[in-house]
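Design request, tokens follow.
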């Protein structure tokens, strides 16, 4: 129980940090730009489609990567995070052995409008077994999720966050309203995402 509570506190802080990083230079991982998440689905089940709405990059060359038909899109999830150190390492951007990964088509990225403001949406379909163009969810747990977009020009754009993945379709999703249904910014968004994680990290109760 103590470990569970500690993990919950750590992940509250990490989601806030990871979802608000923009244009962070990480030479060791060859990431040129980190996307700013506006909102998204932080709960997932097999067959569901995760989505994340992200801000338009300020740099035109970086934005061009999101519209590049020759770009490569790779989605990866970690194994369930069961320790404080593992969660911190994931938020820091340390590499990990993927529990599942999938190469997606460039149609997984699309330009959208949110309340008249331009944005981009990243779509990640999931499945309970190996299926073409779907991310396999085989075990419950809170995991790190990375989506890496590599353009033909060699630039690398990354989305990094945490998701709570559950395999039981009868489970009610964690309360992430406000993180995935409304555009909220700054401290308001952070508080709503905190409420999501405090509401129950790890799936079933």
């Amino acid at each position: 129980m103590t470990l569970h509570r500690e993990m919950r506190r750590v992940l509250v802080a990490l989601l806030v940090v990871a979802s608000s990083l923009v244009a962070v230079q990480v030479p060791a991982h060859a990431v040129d730009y980190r996307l700013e998440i506006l909102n998204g689905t932080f709960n997932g089940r097999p067959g569901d489609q995760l989505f994340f709405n992200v801000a338009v990059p300020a740099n035109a060359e970086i934005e061009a990567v999101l519209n590049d038909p020759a770009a490569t899109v790779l989605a990866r999830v970690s194994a369930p995070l069961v320790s404080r150190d593992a969660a911190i390492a994931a938020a820091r951007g340390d590499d990990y052995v993927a529990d599942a990964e999938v190469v997606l088509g460039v149609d997984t990225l699309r330009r959208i409008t949110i309340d008249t403001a331009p944005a981009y949406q990243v779509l990640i379909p999931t499945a309970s077994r190996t299926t073409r163009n779907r991310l396999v969810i085989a075990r419950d747990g809170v995991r790190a999720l990375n989506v890496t977009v590599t353009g033909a020009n060699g630039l690398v754009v990354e989305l990094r966050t945490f998701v709570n993945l559950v395999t039981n379709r009868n489970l009610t999703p964690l309360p992430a309203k406000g993180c995935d249904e409304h555009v909220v910014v700054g401290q308001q968004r952070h508080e709503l995402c905190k409420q999501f994680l405090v509401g129950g990290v790890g799936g079933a109760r």
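Comment from the thread starter after seeing the answer: thanks! Residues 16-29, 174-205 have pLDDT under 50 and may be disordered.
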